[in-house]
Design brief:
homodimer, alpha/beta, Rossmann fold, 5-stranded parallel sheet, two-stranded antiparallel ribbon, 5 helices, 28% helix
């Protein structure tokens, strides 16, 4: 669901956030209009608004874990976790986390990749939020949800700054909250 | 003996204290750019940037940033790696902070400093949660601020 349809219709902060995202054509491969959030991070107000919107949404949901997907989920997740009193758990590419991990595969356009989480980072019954900058197919988010559920967490929602609702198809009913749609034309 | 900061991130009070200490130090230094080194620098940098009113600029491994970048090599124990930054992310004269979780040899930090200086920024300080002062040797006089020393024995 989009923020604009979920209580934030007409909120001027969403326009500012959308405008701050840069579209880069043909990255990483021809035909992809890449939604580059690094320009959002240069716009202090828009970046702060992004975090504030997520914090306002999640602060009273009893969430004790914010799980961020490497690497751009690390840019948004910790600020949200700190503001709502939750832990931050990084979900990482293989062989980055030291110590004992669990691992979940997910499908890429060509081939597969894996996402890892530390054993013992969360306890069964904890309520979790998954965060990433962008959702496309939902493959990475679904791997993240599976990791958390394997450790007994209840995933309350997946949250992304930008994306299309199609991303929810692979989330097995888990809610998906997106601030803005992708921009289709170059703006910088 | 790997210093794993992920357990710090599970301890809300300790994580908040970490960010608060950096924010208190840097909030009145006129810093407009916080540059975080991929990926664990991304965990600390943005919160500091948001609190002090600065931009956050990610410094990344090769081929991750879309668009035009500049690139700086640095030496690993075996071989070299590169760090990249977007062209246009910062303007000449901006005062910058570099942040990473840990400093060992200082190689990555020194590459970060060079990237920022090539774009005309003034690097005020490099900040890490954990590390040894030796890391400063490769920073060409740039100050290095470290919260804690590495632990030498297993504690979990």
């Amino acid at each position: 669901m989009f923020a604009a349809e979920n209580g934030l219709r007409g909120d001027p902060r969403l326009q500012g956030i959308s405008k701050a995202i840069r579209v880069v054509p043909d990255f990483p491969i021809p035909g992809i209009m890449f939604q580059d959030i690094t320009t959002l991070l240069l716009d202090h107000k828009a970046f702060k608004d992004t975090v504030d919107i997520f914090v306002d949404r999640y602060r009273d949901m009893g969430i004790s874990v914010v799980a961020g997907i490497e690497a751009r989920g690390f840019v948004f997740g910790p600020s949200i976790a700190l503001a709502i009193g939750a832990k931050f758990v990084p979900l990482r590419k293989p062989n980055k986390l030291p110590g004992e991990v669990i691992s979940e595969a997910y499908v890429l356009e060509y081939g597969t990749d894996r996402l890892e989480m530390h054993v013992g980072a969360i306890e069964p019954g904890e309520r979790a939020l998954v965060i990433d900058d962008l959702v496309a197919t939902g493959g990475t988010l679904s791997a993240a949800v599976r990791l958390l559920e394997r450790m007994g967490a209840e995933v309350v929602e997946c949250a992304c700054v930008v994306g299309l609702p199609e991303g929810q198809r692979r989330l097995d009913g888990k809610p998906l909250y997106i601030l803005v749609e992708p921009r289709l034309s170059v703006n910088y």
